[in-house]
Amino acid sequence: MTPIQARSPHARWTWIAAGSFVAVISLAVLGAPSALATSHDQVGLDQVPETTPGATVVVPHPISVTAIAQRMQAAIQAASPGTTVGIDVVDTTTGTAVASLNAGEQFYTASVVKLLIALDALKSRNWQPAPETADRIGQMLSASDDDIADLMWDNGGNNAIIDRMVETIGLSNTTAPEDTAQWGETLTTPRDVVSIFHYITTTAPASARDLILGALHNADRTAADGTDQYFGIPDALTGASWAVKQGWMDLNSSTTLDTTGLVSPAPDQPYRYAVVVLSTQPAGTDWAVAGAALTSGVQLLHAVLR
After folding, report:
1. Is the pLDDT of residue 74 over 60?
2. Residue 231 above 80 pLDDT?
3. Entry pTM
4. Span 160-178, mean pLDDT?
5. Which DSSP category does 23 fall into?
6. What's the per-residue H, E or C state across 26-65?
7. How confident is the model at residue 306 (pLDDT cuts 50, 70, 90)?
8. CB-based contacts of 298-301 (< 8 A; 24+ apart in sequence)
9. Closest residue by Cα to residue 43 from 209, 223, 273
10. How many CB atoms lie within 10 A of CB 137?
């Protein structure tokens, strides 16, 4: 996208859950061994640690969802100073938060908005798209194809897409861009992105769910514009199976980089966790540096996504 001036400072809002998301969970310390295996497509069984007979088993103290997210933020900011981060990680089986920080703050979606473009295109066709339309939607998501997004954005009425999806899903703080030509300037919150994934997995018809998640699961390493998409979730949570929608955008005043998706820590836990990390990084931040920063933060989830 052509660099443009950022509009306004992020505003904090209060979220009223449309689903059953709750903001508390007791978790083991981040230093615990990882339960994730070594393959994106197949996750191995957890290893049972050996213990000395008669030894006292020490149960780690639980750590708060905010503390986990603060450690993630610290890791990201150490790699990319001056970055603002929003985090929401939710166990979809219970609706409880695993990590949360600035979850109600607005950030630019960049290409994450393609989830809403895809859902709106499918819904407007009564969830029964022609094969060529389904193929275009899959390509838009897996390769993050901007040309297809431009076409669907225009065909769907630009900002009207956001208005319809906000009402359909019940998003509390997602707003259409001021410049109707710049879909990447849509504003959303980590919590609203979790709600989008919740809608995809629980409410959208199975055919739409399979199309979208299939594309996200098979996200290309190299996007249509040549960007390496495997930052954040894909590079950090090695061994887990995932379905991701990444976002990146370079503005005159800031760099946007987002990693979002559903994560399966084991084969019997399909898409158990919704993981959303949105970031506003300093203008001109090198893409490799920006991506590595998100990866370093998401890596800290290894100990708690199990």
Report:
1. yes
2. yes
3. 0.82
4. 99
5. S
6. CECCCCCCCCCCCCCCCCCCCCCCCCCCCCCCCCCCCECH
7. confident
8. 298/72, 298/232, 298/233, 298/236, 298/237, 298/259, 299/75, 299/236, 299/237, 300/30, 300/68, 300/71, 300/72, 300/75, 301/68, 301/72, 301/89, 301/98, 301/99, 301/236, 301/237, 301/275
9. 273
10. 24
The answer to whether the beta carbons of residues 198 and 19 sit under 8 Å apart is yes
- What is the Cα–Cα distance from 197 to 92, expressed in whole angstroms? 10
The Cα–Cα gap between 253 and 274 comes to 29
Residue 156: both structure tokens together: 């769907």
CA distance 299 to 235: 8
The residue whose two tokens read 């660099």 is 3
User: Which tokens go with 67?
Assistant: 């503390």
HSE of 83, CA atoms in CB hemisphere, 13 A: 32
Backbone angles phi, psi at 22, to 5 degrees: -125, 155
CA 174 distance to own-chain centroid: 15
Instruction: Could you list the beta-strand ranges (E) of the chain.
Output: 84-91, 96-101, 107-108, 187-188, 241-250, 254-264, 273-282
DSSP structure string for 202-243:
HTS-HHHHHHHHHHHHT--SB-TTS-B--SSHHHHSTTSEEE
Q: Which two tokens stand for residue 112?
A: 């994450």
Query: Which three-class secondary structure state does DSSP give residue 305?
Result: coil
CATH number, span 65-303? 3.40.710.10
Instruction: Indicate the domain borders of the chain.
Output: 65-303
